């Protein structure tokens, strides 16, 4: 495998195709922030704005400025989105709405904790890029809200009847592994190490079920397996993405056994999640092979494949495993063949099981300027190390 | 077309295949109520119970008892499910939960108005079947709750920020067209006529958009078109199902112009919703042909096709339109070829765009003892009239 050539491929795709697409097509020069509902050619088909994606684009352009090159247009793109978010994205108390109109009028209440996590991530990175302490303070205030809300993230919008079936969800501890590293300059080294030990334990000992060899999306409050739709739910892309967050954290904390375990879980999940008939990684599965509730279970999503590429390269670099490298080649092949649009910039997001494009949008409610460029960046940087 | 033969085909499938399946496989003889999560062969794969489906099965067996034959086992099946629902399905004040455990412990709060509408429908029909006034009273109490909640059906679980974008949703007025007729013996003739006039106006003049020739799922509070994801959303099966509710109501109220309009809308919707490439009717579409948010947009669902068959037969009987009959043949062909399981009882529910089985369950969280048997019954009875 020609790592140099591959590294260049990822870098070029990022800097010559994907980043220019978002820079030129997504910025709302009239009201601020970003359009993310962009069709195949990059034209805006809906003007609603979603906090997840607004925050993630602020983060991405700040990160590029901080880590790739101090380009003025990248900083300005991040800054104007940050200002829009700061002004309209929350209720005045750093409770982050889920979505707002083009003009910034709130549409959906702050029920979704990941609006908070991505806002914190965005302002922490924007603080670094600009040196403006106000942004770092917003990140810290938001982080505090997350900690307050972590035991009942949906708050009053939680529809579960208390006491019948209390489940813990995987997504928040998973995201916190990444967020703590993103915010280490604000949270402090000691906090990140203490919290990291707890988070690693939660992900690797509670949500990882040794009897399955897999991570489940939900467990009972006491940490046991729940033989219910929610308890049996597998999201291979989610589990694999978590493994590179864990590998980053374990590398930072110098925990070799955890790296080894994260590497193993990556391969086990991929073995389970790979569609042997049509290729690609399934979106949802049931741990007992019952029918999942999610009708889109067999679709192939862009972020699943990009996150998997990252985890495989990290697991190869950290363990030297040939199996990781073989899987990387296979997933790389599938991903570039199926998700890259040969005709127009940016990548497709949604394929059916057969690998045909099911929705030809380049951005929407959930796909924005995030997984494709972050994945390309991470792979470029990992490949450069070989 | 041999109507006699076809009528027999629908009747036999109902009475010899589908009804015996639910009677033998779904009843929970230990705790009461019904299992609905049944795999291809009818084995229980999950024991959670969903109020929508519990109520619909009470309704179906009561209806069969009232309209087909006074079979003791049908009545007993309906009655035991009704008792289970009465005991565990609501909070004591006829606020109906969304789901409960096998034993009847509530899982999900009463956030969903259709748990109420299907409970009202169930107890009204069970009251008729048993002559037990307690059941009819439950139906009436529940109906009153629906009317109280109709302007904000989700109540405190409504995540929309008040004042930014107030939308009205199509589903409730649509269901009320059917529920009022179901409950006419409880609500009274005068009420049904008065309410019917309002509902017909709402469906046919507010949600039907003449500029599109289609019904949309959401409109602005003032009745205007909303050029947003929600406002552009089309659900062809929903719109077509509504048209047979409207035809029933218009027939009952002797409104020939409304019948004619419902017939036209059925055909226009089918023309729009039919997949010219692979056959079958799409699940979701966007009125402006933008990408819809629903990843399952191109799947072919059982209920869409069964409800369409009903609407086409009613529209043929009431208008004599050859076009309705031609469409019926086409949809009948697709439906029986793709949804009927040649090997095991009951029908498949979820196909991919190509018409291949995507989930081979016979029941789940949303598919229960309802659309297949109701559709077969309705088609049998309509075909008998020719």
UniProtKB/TrEMBL annotation, chains A, B:
GO MF assignments: isomerase activity
Entries under Pfam families matching the protein: GlcNAc_2-epim (PF07221)
Record-linked InterPro entries: 6-hairpin_glycosidase_sf, 6hp_glycosidase-like_sf, AGE/CE, AGE_dom
Keyword Isomerase in annotation: yes
CDD domains assigned to the protein according to its UniProt record, in alphabetical order: AGE
UniProt key word Isomerase: yes
Gene3D superfamilies to which the protein is assigned, alphabetical: 1.50.10.10
GO BP terms in the entry: carbohydrate metabolic process
Family classification: Belongs to the N-acylglucosamine 2-epimerase family.
Protein name, as recorded: N-acylglucosamine 2-epimerase
Originating species: Marinilabilia rubra
């Amino acid at each position: 495998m020609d790592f140099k050539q591959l590294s260049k491929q990822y870098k070029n795709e990022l800097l010559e195709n994907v980043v220019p697409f978002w820079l030129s097509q997504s910025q709302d020069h009239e009201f601020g922030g970003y359009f993310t509902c962009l069709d195949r050619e990059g034209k805006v088909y809906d003007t609603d704005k979603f906090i997840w994606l607004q925050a993630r684009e602020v983060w991405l352009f700040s990160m590029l400025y901080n880590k790739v090159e101090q380009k003025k247009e990248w900083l300005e793109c991040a800054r104007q989105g940050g200002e829009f978010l700061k002004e309209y994205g929350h209720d005045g108390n750093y409770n982050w709405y889920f979505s707002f109109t083009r003009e910034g009028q709130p549409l959906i209440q702050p029920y979704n904790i990941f609006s908070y996590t991505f806002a914190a991530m965005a302002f922490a990175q924007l603080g670094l890029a600009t040196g403006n302490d106000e942004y770092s303070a917003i990140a810290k205030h938001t982080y505090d809200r997350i900690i307050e809300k972590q035991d009942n993230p949906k708050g009053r919008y939680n529809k579960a009847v208390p006491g019948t079936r209390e489940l813990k969800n995987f997504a928040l501890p998973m995201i916190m592994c990444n967020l703590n590293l993103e915010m280490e300059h604000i949270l402090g080294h000691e906090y990140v190490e203490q919290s990291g030990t707890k988070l690693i334990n939660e992900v690797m000992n509670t949500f990882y079920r040794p009897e399955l060899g897999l991570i489940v999306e939900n467990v009972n409050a006491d940490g046991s397996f729940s033989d219910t739709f929610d308890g049996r739910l597998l999201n291979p892309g989610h589990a694999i993405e978590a493994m590179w967050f864990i590998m980053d954290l374990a590398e930072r904390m110098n925990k070799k056994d955890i790296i080894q375990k994260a590497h193993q879980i990556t391969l086990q999940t991929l073995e389970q999640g790979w569609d042997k008939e049509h290729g690609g990684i399934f979106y949802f599965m049931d741990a007992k092979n019952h029918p999942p509730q999610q009708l889109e279970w067999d679709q192939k999503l862009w972020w699943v494949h990009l996150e998997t590429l990252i985890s495989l390269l990290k697991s190869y670099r950290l363990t030297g495993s040939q199996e990781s490298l073989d899987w990387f080649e296979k997933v790389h092949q599938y991903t570039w063949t199926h998700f890259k649009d040969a005709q127009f910039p940016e990548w497709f997001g949604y394929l059916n099981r057969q690998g045909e494009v099911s929705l030809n949008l380049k951005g929407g409610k959930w796909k924005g300027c995030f997984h494709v460029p972050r994945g390309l960046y991470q792979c470029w940087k990992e490949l450069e190390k070989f």
